Amino acid sequence: MADAVLKQLQDERECEGLLECMLGLNELDRGVFRLLVKCPESLTVDQIADVIDRERTTAYRSVKRLQEAGVAKKEQESCPKGGYHHVYRPTDPDEIADEFQRMLNEWYANTGQLIQEFRDTYTEGHPPETGP
Fold it and tell me: How far apart are CA 12 and CA 103, in angstroms?
């Protein structure tokens, strides 16, 4: 078995590792996600920046990545003195898990097709011609 696949199968895994391996989220993003999950109320970017002790722009980029990955949602809240601000909260865990399952099923189907193409190509004894 290829070393990369074997390593993946032997590594101790944690459920939060799915955020990294399936969505490409970095350590900071995962920390911000944990913060959103632990906090009973939605948080502003400024509140997130204060808790993670980073610049506002860094916190914003992280919540933006979470949002783009589908694990955080942005909402608009009215301010008591008028106007509004944006707050962030985690996406429902069932929605995230369903998306992970969809991604896994798609990967499995696509990989199965590639394996069959490999079998068909090389069983005939004629490897495909490649360029120079």
Answer: 21
Over its length of 132 residues, how does the chain's per-residue pLDDT go in tens digits?
Answer: 556 655 655 565 677 778 888 888 999 999 999 999 999 999 999 999 999 999 999 999 999 999 999 999 999 998 888 899 999 999 999 999 999 899 989 999 999 999 999 898 888 666 656 655
Q: What phi and psi values does residue 88 have, to the nearest 5 degrees?
A: -125, 145
Whether 86 and 44 have beta carbons less than 8 Å apart is answered as yes
Q: What are the contacts of 104-112 at 24+ separation with CB within 8 A?
A: 104/22
Q: Are strands 72-78 and 84-90 parallel, antiparallel or unpaired?
A: antiparallel
Note the pTM of the prediction, 2 decimals.
0.77
